[in-house]
Amino acid sequence: MKKVFILGSTGSIGVNSLKVIENLNDEFKVIGLTVNSNVDLLVEQIKKYNPEIVAIRDKSSAEKIKDLVPNDVKLFTGEKGLIEAAVSCDYDIFIGAMVGFAGLAPTIEAIKRGKRIALANKETLVVAGEFVTNLCRENQAEILPVDSEHSAIYQCLVGENLSEVEKLILTASGGPFLNKEKSFFDIATIDEALNHPNWKMGNKITIDSATLMNKGLEVIEAKWLFGLPKEKIDVVIHPQSIIHSLVQFVDGSVKAQLGLPDMKLPIQYALTFPNRTQNYFTRTDLTEIGTLTFTKPDYSKFECLKLAYDALECGGTAPCVLNAANEIAVDKFLKKEIKFSHIPGIIYSALNKFVSNGLSDLESIFEYDKKTREYVRTLN
Ligand code: NAD
Ligand code: MG
Description:
With 380 residues, this protein is α/β, with parallel strands linked by helices. It folds into 2 domains: 2-145, 3-Layer(aba) Sandwich (Rossmann fold); 150-261 and 281-376, Rna Polymerase Sigma Factor, Chain: A (Orthogonal Bundle), CATH 1.10.1740.10. 46% of the residues lie in helices and 16% in strands. The protein is built from 16 helices and 11 strands. The strands form 2 sheets. Strands 4-3-2-1-5-6-7 form a 7-stranded parallel β-sheet, with helices on both faces. Strand 1, helix 1 (12-23) and strand 2 (28-35) form a beta-alpha-beta unit. Helix 4 runs parallel beside helix 5 and helix 6 runs antiparallel to helix 14 (318-334). Bound molecules: nicotinamide-adenine-dinucleotide (NAD) and magnesium ion.
């Protein structure tokens, strides 16, 4: 039986991970659960999965939960508590299902322990790709991507030689504003931006999908996962979200992975790899889907995608600044402090202010993340 630790168990990926584990019967056991503040759901999860360890970051939520956690379950609190939990119990697989830069530090602890990392938290690779991939090598930790595009590429690459890859093609649904004029971005509401046509996800990634920053972050994620330069990573708009991504080889052959837009499949693959396990999730019926379409992304309309390629080109701390500026800009949009159309300008301004120092060590990453956040909080 494999033991599983879930960082961010109450979010969209966390909840889907628990469904997958339940479905895999006795092969996997939940050992650790960590959350930000959702006390009610965490209490439910503790009752159902009986973990050894739980951590809750938010201090006032931690006060509320204290008396509700059974005596035999170890409870950690605060930001440090997430790290203490990740180093305090024994597990085989660490599911990185937390959102944002905050997921980096606990994930590093799991990597240092040489675990399998089922990684949904793409920000970890965006901000610290070089550091994290080196650390994995040193500690014989392996990253299995949960992001559907990267899982698709991973699946296409099984049995292939990376040196024979000509390019990776990441598909993007285009989000809710694919067919809107750019001028609409001035009046786009929060509800409209959160209304993704194909996927049900947490708020931050849903806004990133509306700006196409999500695809930009995924280009950077792909660079580190597969070790290919940005010239070999393309994006194509595919509104049906059935082809999750493709790999083109040097002989011109193209392999794709298909499936319904449901994160349970990539999560299960990351848990069971190199095996596949029977499940009864809804099957893909191509005759029912009928049409699959593809177009080029409009970089002048979706400026965030272009900014991500630029940051990747710059290297060093630039992707970290891109990510921090984006996290704060999205938060400001969700608090109605800025318009949807302001997001790319804010990120551009941060990238210009904090030019990369060319380094990728952890100290630089934490420094650039912090000063970018402070700066962007002052912008409108
Ligand atoms: P979510 O907002 O639904 O859930 C986030 C989880 O992290 C929650 O359990 C929350 O309690 C916890 N959390 C958030 N901030 C925290 C903090 N500061 N400290 C401790 N815990 C904190 O997010 P999600 O949609 O599940 O996405 C999680 C990650 O997976 C993101 O990095 C996202 O980009 C990636 N991802 C998500 C999907 C998807 O379908 N949802 C698909 C691909 C990749
Ligand atoms: Mg994705």
